[in-house]
Design goal:
By secondary structure, the protein is an alpha/beta fold. The strands form 4 sheets. Strands 10-11-9-8-7-12-13 form a 7-stranded mixed beta sheet, sandwiched between helices. A 6-stranded antiparallel beta sheet has the order 4-3-6-1-2-5, with helices on one face. It has a 5-stranded mixed beta sheet with strand order 15-14-20-16-18, covered by helices on one side. A hairpin with a 5-residue loop joins strand 3 and strand 4. The chain has 3 domains: about 110 residues, Translation factors (Elongation Factor Tu (Ef-tu), domain 3, Beta Barrel); about 140 residues, Nucleotide-binding domain of ferredoxin-NADP reductase (FNR) module (Rossmann fold); about 90 residues, Roll (Ubiquitin-like (UB roll)), CATH 3.10.20.30. The N and C termini lie far apart (about 110 Å). It has 9 helices and 20 strands. The chain is about 25% helix and about 25% strand.
């Protein structure tokens, strides 16, 4: 027997001994694991090594109808005491559902009239802070009578500022609205005009709290510094977060205010917010744009952003009051509209109570806008399908929604603010 042959037999023997030892060890560990698993099933214990049990918190669902809230705090926010923030807590002390930053609350108010009586009005106000576990916040600006106009003062805003104080109770619907910031990490540009800053404050506060590394630009347009809201808060945020770029644009600022002036982290401009300013300041990034403000401001900016080349899906906006902001349609969209005869042809709309018959055509807006354009008064609140104030019964015909409403209309009725006629239709109004 050669030495090589002998060495091979010795190596084989050692290998077999190691294999037998490993098999016995594995078998013993397997028996122990099975015993432990049986015990865990008996007592409902999770024993998977190295994996912590996943505890999923119960989501708080939105409430139906109106819920009573109490004003816990009322805070003046500058701007000549014409804007106040209201901190609202639920009277039933139950948990609050978390909302999407940018959404609004709907209020049913027994507001006082100029003649001393009371009227029930429904109004929507944007939430002006990031979601908080124990309260909601809205910020309301007094709406005066326009100069040279016979329109009355803002009923709900003046009621809030003059008659709603700490301890007041309010009837509130759950947060709603399609205008809210996405939760991606895409860079974002917020553009607010006047009190349109409120939903953007909610977006901004949430972003800097939940996504501190996200690039955020805020262009805040006002006439002068006296109209700025929460200026110190914004400056503090800009100081604390290098990814937050704050630009204040004043269209009627003091003469000494220089365009492009910088004071610490705050940049001021003696101009309106326009695309020329954005093109000059913004780096080339795939920004999402969120705009809220007066109709005139959005009418100029939305189309200009599209002409600049910003994709339609990256432009999000919410306008004040009865506003219809037209997006520039692409050729494919226009061709699709022509192919859908139900939306391309004129449609006869009958308003039963008003005794009017009018022809709706594409481009005349929602049925609410169409009714108002013909002198038909319709109660409305949010104008985005969230509050249900403009709910109207359909006697005959069909309608189609331009966007999914947050409020569920009753069977046989529709929300005029977010629908158009699909066929000849008779409405109760």
């Amino acid at each position: 027997m050669t030495s090589l042959y002998l060495s091979s037999w010795i190596a084989l023997g050692i290998f077999l001994q190691i294999a037998i030892y490993l098999c016995i060890g594995f078998w013993r560990h397997w028996q122990s694991y099975q015993a432990l698993r049986n015990m865990a099933q008996e007592f409902e214990i999770d024993v998977n090594p190295g994996i912590a049990p996943q505890v999923t918190p119960l989501a708080v669902t939105a409430w139906a109808g109106y819920r009573t809230f109490r004003v816990e705090r009322k805070v003046e926010e500058g701007a000549g005491a014409q804007i106040c923030s209201f901190y609202l807590v639920p009277e039933d002390k139950k948990p609050l559902p978390e909302f999407l930053p940018g959404q609004f609350l709907t209020f049913q108010l027994d507001a006082l009239t100029a003649l001393g009586g009371a009227q029930s009005v429904v109004r929507c106000y944007s939430l002006s802070d990031a979601p908080q576990p124990k309260h909601y916040r809205i910020s309301v600006k007094r709406a005066p009578t326009p100069v040279g106009s016979n329109f009355p003062v803002g009923v709900s805003s003046n009621y809030f500022l003059d008659h709603v104080d700490v301890g007041s109770q309010l009837q509130v619907r759950a947060p709603a609205g399609h205008f809210h910031i996405d939760h991606s990490d895409a860079p974002v540009v917020l553009i607010g005009g006047g009190i349109g800053i409120t939903p953007l404050l909610s977006m901004l506060n949430w972003c800097l709290m939940a996504q501190p590394e996200r690039e955020v630009w805020l262009f805040y347009g006002v006439r002068n510094s006296a109209e700025l809201v929460m200026q110190l808060h914004l400056k503090d945020l800009a100081t604390q977060h290098p990814n937050f770029h704050l630009h204040l644009c004043m269209s009627n600022a003091q003469a000494h205010t220089l365009a492009g002036h910088q004071s610490g982290p705050v940049h001021t401009h003696h101009s309106r917010v326009d695309v020329a300013l954005l093109r000059r300041l913004l780096p080339l990034r795939p920004y999402h744009y969120y705009l809220c403000g007066p109709t005139a401001m959005l009418q100029s900016l939305v189309g200009a952003l599209q002409e600049w080349g910003v994709p339609d899906g990256r432009i999000h906006f919410e306008a004040f009051g009865p506003a219809s902001i037209a997006r520039k349609k692409s050729t494919s969209v226009e061709q699709a509209s022509v192919q859908h005869g139900s939306q391309a042809a004129a449609v006869l709309v009958t308003f039963a109570k008003s005794g009017k018959q009018e022809t709706w055509t594409p481009g005349t807006g929602s049925l609410l806008e169409f009714a108002e354009s013909h002198g038909i008064v319709v109660s409305s609140g949010c104008r985005t399908g969230g509050c249900g104030t403009c709910q109207t019964s359909i006697r005959t015909g069909e309608v189609v929604y331009t966007q999914a409403p947050d409020f569920d209309p009753e069977p046989g009725s529709c929300l005029l603010c977010v629908c158009t006629p699909k066929t000849a239709v008779t409405l109760e109004t």
